[in-house]
Specification:
The protein is an alpha+beta fold and 332 residues long. The protein has six helices and 19 strands.
Length: 332
């Protein structure tokens, strides 16, 4: 039964459990902190997050949220409930699908001295992400429903301050102004030439126009482009976009940090819309259909191929709330 996970409900509260392969381990309760850390001396640090880290942490309340198919674990960390040591290992553990809660990204909501709050955003591999459009919408709705901020808010990210407005279960965020696009570049990939455009919409993106995004080998090509020496050392996200009808495009994205195709990418949707505004003269607003078939709407103003007042609107769904049992962040 390795890789099976279950949800146990008590008084309306959900707790997620992962069970191992031995039948004598099938007990519906989280292990103690000591058991989770390992009680023998000289434990293998590569198997589990540092023992002292686990022992300091109690069961953690979390929200599981989804923005157009991009899913996130969100924790209110204003009281510093998540300690710092080995944080990337902890995040990578809880973001593993089947073995833990699973998510594309992990968000800590923290206090800010200047705006409503600040976030720390991490990819599922534990690496830091400067910006995530779908995650930003989810963070904004989280802040609203938990009383951290009102319907109109601002919060700090590594890409800059993001403004957000709650519209029922949808959120509209104002992105930071993107860098100037670079057009019609080429790469030699796997014995062929790929023509692409690039733009930074908070994080770097490559946008390649294809005849049919549904028929594109996103994982193979995305991985080759994402790690190409041209984009070292940070790497890049890779988007494949095709036209559906005037003003509407389909997009598929290979995300760095997740190292796979995701069902949606907010900053990728913005990148695709802006590149299509230059290349195909698409006008605001542009509709972007993601792999999940959810629609993201991108608004912008443009002058001489310079973009400003860029907004992204889409859903921000609360999937579940609960506690992370301490077994959730076992590394092995």
């Amino acid at each position: 039964m390795t890789g099976n996970d279950f949800v146990f409900y008590k008084n309306g509260q959900a707790t997620v459990f992962g069970f191992g392969s031995r039948t004598d381990n099938l007990r519906m309760r989280p292990k103690s902190a000591a058991a989770a850390a390992g009680t023998h001396s000289g434990g293998n640090s590569t198997d589990r997050v540092q023992r002292s880290f686990i022992q300091k942490m109690k069961n953690l309340s979390f929200f599981k949220m989804c923005g157009s198919g991009n899913d996130f674990i969100i924790i209110d960390n204003r009281n510093h409930v998540v300690e710092e040591p080995d944080l990337p290992a902890f995040i990578a553990a809880v973001c593993r699908r089947k073995m833990s809660v699973g998510a594309d990204g992990f968000i800590l909501i923290e206090d800010s001295d200047t705006v409503d709050f600040k976030w720390r955003f991490y990819n599922s591999d534990g690496s830091i992400g400067e910006m995530c459009g779908n995650g930003a919408r989810c963070a904004a709705r989280f802040a609203y429903v938990t009383g951290i901020a009102g319907k109109n808010m601002k919060f700090e990210t590594l890409a800059g301050v993001i403004a957000a407005r709650i519209i029922k279960d949808r959120v509209k965020i104002r992105m930071t102004d993107p860098a100037m696009a670079r057009l019609d570049q080429s790469l030699e990939i796997d014995g062929g030439t790929v023509v692409f455009n690039s733009i930074n919409t908070g994080v770097p993106h490559v946008v390649t126009a294809v005849e049919d995004a549904d028929k594109t080998d996103v994982v193979r090509l995305g991985r080759l482009i994402r790690r190409h020496p041209v984009f070292e050392p940070e790497g890049t996200n890779v988007n494949f976009i095709s036209s559906r009808e005037p003003g509407t495009y389909e997009i598929r994205t290979y995300e760095r940090g997740v190292e796979d195709e995701t069902l949606a990418c907010g900053t990728g949707a913005v990148a695709g819309a802006l590149i299509m505004a230059i290349k195909s003269r698409a006008t605001s607003p542009v509709k972007i259909i993601t792999r999940s078939k959810c629609c993201l709407t991108v608004y912008f103003k443009e002058k001489n191929d310079i973009f400003y007042d860029v907004f992204l609107e889409g859903d921000a769904r609360i999937i579940s709330t609960g506690e992370l049992g301490q077994d959730a962040w076992l590394i092995r």
